[in-house]
Amino acid sequence: MNAVDTALAPKPAVRLISGNHACALGALAAGCRFFAGYPITPSSEIAERLSRLLPEVDGVFVQMEDEIASIAAVIGASMGGVKALTATSGPGFSLKQENIGYAAGAEIPCVIVNVMRGGPSTGMPTRPAQGDIMQARWGSHGDYPIVVLAPASVREIYDETMRAFDLAETCRTPVVLLYDQVIAQLAETVELGDTSDLARTERKWASGPRAAYQPYAADEDGIPAMSRPGAGYRVHTTGLNHAENGFPTQNPEAVARNLGRLLTKLDRHRDAIDSWQTINCDDAEVLIVAIGISARAATRALDIARARGVRAGLFRPITLWPFPETALREVAARARAVLVPEMNAGQLSLEVERILGGKRVEGMHRFNGEPITPAEIAARAESLAKAALAKETR
Amino acid sequence: MIVDSAAAFDVRDYLRQEMMPHFLCPGCGHGIALRALLWAIHEQGIDKDTLAVVSGIGCAGRLSAYIDANTFHVTHGRPLAYATGLALARPDLHVVVITGDGDCLAIGGNHLIHACRRNLKLTCLMLNNEVYGMTGGQVSPTTSESRLTSTTPHGNAEPRFDACALAAAAGASFVGREGTRHVPKLKELIRSGLVHPGFAFVEVLSDCTEIFGRKNELGSSPEMMLRQKSELRPSAYRDTVDTPFRSNDLPTGILTKTERPEYGAAYRKAAAAQRASMAKASAAKSAAAPAKGTP
Fold first, then answer.
1. Which residues are bridge partners to B72 per DSSP?
2. Which of A215, A281, A271, A277 is nearest to A79 (CA)?
3. Residue B156 lies in a domain
4. Is pLDDT above 90 for A284?
5. Residue B271 is nearest to which of A58, A64, A78, comparing CB atoms?
6. pLDDT value at position B1?
7. How far apart are CA A376 and CA A381, in angstroms?
8. Measured between beta carbons, which residues in chain A are less than 8 angstroms from residue B270?
9. Contacts of B89 in chain A (CB under 8 A)
10. Sign of the C-alpha dihedral, residues B276, B282, B287, B288?
11. Around Cβ A393, how many Cβ atoms within 10 Å?
12. pLDDT value of residue A394
């Protein structure tokens, strides 16, 4: 093994690492070769790891002057054709939003990690929260597509970081990895295989004569081929609404056509984007919908509830946005009640209510920095099941 | 695609003809500044295919769209940050930033001082027209004292930034200033910036005739250009108090030029050293341990 491979092939195969460490390793395995960031709790370990690991693989790490500069540098690196990552937490994620919108509109692939901590404002930097579920989807101005992945374990952070890069490249979109402080700093044993021969997804590059190339003319899959600076295409990239030729336009037809394509492009890739987990849903009378640490607690709560005779099941979106709504509808159709435990004042529950239109969705909200416990979720599921049964037998 | 640099400069070789006519107002200095930049690029023999121009928002920001190169029109105030990522990731590209006084000194001020400090090879052209022209003529960080703008109806009471002094104080290794009235001198200054092995900050005094000039009754474009003469002062004159130059007002020419390590090269050198020492350690380890299965 040569020195360049050491960052890519973790040794030994079974390791005790934190979620943030797994994120750094997953990024390298996915081919990320640029990181720009700004220190912020509880995501800084990703930057610290990559400041050591990226030079090993001829990549670049840079600590920028602020959060906005970090996302800007990441988009700049990706414009140059290099897979790029930044990591932050709530306050920094808010600062990055304008430029995340730029990446979405100009269709520049990039990955943004947001480790959720207490909010609003400075909030509780060392305490977990899940208050950025809506910000991750709607934080930038205007209409735009975005993919948000919500891993719930150290191993899953590793896998989803790799998938985040694959989706960013194939769909030419920013992808947000959204997880909470507990998952970020939790250490778990994971087995990481040799990734040196992993097939890595590359974005679709422009080919053919310059005269025939339209930088925003999409193929059947809704994704335009990107040109690499230096390849001779000499195109213009802008955050202004643009036509297929990449230049600004205010022509209503051209704007509607191009923005329309942008806003629906992810629909053609839902098979690759959508991801969720179901546990014990086949006979569930109470369906729990949760992400991150709340989903971990809910998983344990299923056993407690079932021991008490309550048939509880869990639907866990791994891809949070676009929400796997068809899958949720199918699973929820069989349930008497739906419970959404989350560490905020009610965000995921709003989306679940919208999707299940009319069905009673019970929110279980906590925003004091303490994770919701399995016993609490189980008790709530039990009371919901009893209430639903009483209503039906009345 | 390299245009023969020995051939006479023809600005049309570097412009996107399909973007004409341009959107600049009659009398605007930005077209002159753009021509000087393209002339310098031509004389320097920079390949259009490896030229990347990153610009922000505002009148200056719109110039990138006219240049036949890899052009990136990014968010307000952030072109230096985008360019930092691009230049670090792609050291083979020649990265030029075009920004305005509001873009560079107000909303993007933090990126400027850190780019000066970091000394990554970038050429930053700041077109200073003393006003936010695109949004209708509001006061900017470089608006002269007592000038009328759409947000200083009684005259600007804030002192202006001396952008070159700011850049030099922040550690920029190349700082220069010129007005649009001296195109060959401006071209030479930009050319010096393009070849400088580090961060080069070039301020261009460029007149906004239509909005700033009209509001302050500064006359036509030629009259405003003549006025540059009374505001600008070749640095060679030093402290000489002399008409028609205003004493110690904005000096022109190369104001700072120092040699210090270029950030990208320094980073890559340290990274290569890290890889070499790891390879050495790995080789020593495998030499010490006998290969598995050997008797």
1. A237, B54
2. A215
3. yes
4. yes
5. A58
6. 67
7. 9
8. 55
9. 33-34, 60, 76-78, 80-82, 84
10. positive
11. 6
12. 72
Above 60 in pLDDT, residue B93?
yes
In a domain, B269, yes or no: no
Q: Give the C-alpha separation, A284 to A270, whole Å.
A: 26
Q: What are the residues facing A113 on neighbouring strands?
A: A87, A177
Q: Which of B85, B270, B274 sits opposite A36 (nearest CB)?
A: B85
Contacts of A210 (CB under 8 A, 6+ apart): A232, A233, A234
Which residue is closest to B109 within chain A, CA to CA?
A65
Within 10 Å of residue B108's Cβ, how many Cβ atoms? 28
| Token couple for B146 | 């007592």
Once rounded to an integer, what is the mean pLDDT over residues A13-42?
A: 96
Determine the pLDDT at residue A80: 98
Distances (CA, A) of A247 to A80, A255, B19, B55: 19, 11, 9, 14
Please give the pLDDT value at position A6: 53
Tally of domains in chain B:
1
* Torsions phi, psi for A93 (to 5 deg): -65, -40
d(CA B283, CA A39): 35
Residue A1 has pLDDT above 60, yes or no: no
Q: For chain A, say whether B114 makes contact (Cβ under 8 Å).
A: yes
- The pLDDT assigned to B294 comes to 47
Token pair listed for A306: 């079932």
What is d(CA A95, CA A68) in angstroms, rounded to the nearest whole number?
Answer: 6
**Residue A138 pLDDT level (bands cut at 50, 70, 90):** very high
- For residue B41, being part of any structural domain is answered with yes
Q: What CATH number does the domain containing B135 carry? A: 3.40.50.970
Kindly state whether B267 is in contact with chain A, defined as any CB-CB distance less than 8 angstroms.
yes
Beta bridge partners of B51: B94
Query: Which chain A residues are closer than 8 Å to B73 by Cβ?
Result: 236-240, 248
Residue with tokens 């003529």: B137
- State yes or no: pLDDT of A45 exceeds 70: yes
| B50:A229 CB<8 A | yes
CA atoms within 13 A on the CB side of A181: 21
Instruction: Judge whether B69 lies within some domain.
Output: yes
Q: What domains sit in chain A, N to C, each tagged with a CATH number?
A: 3-191 (3.40.50.970), 210-270 (no CATH), 278-393 (3.40.50.920)
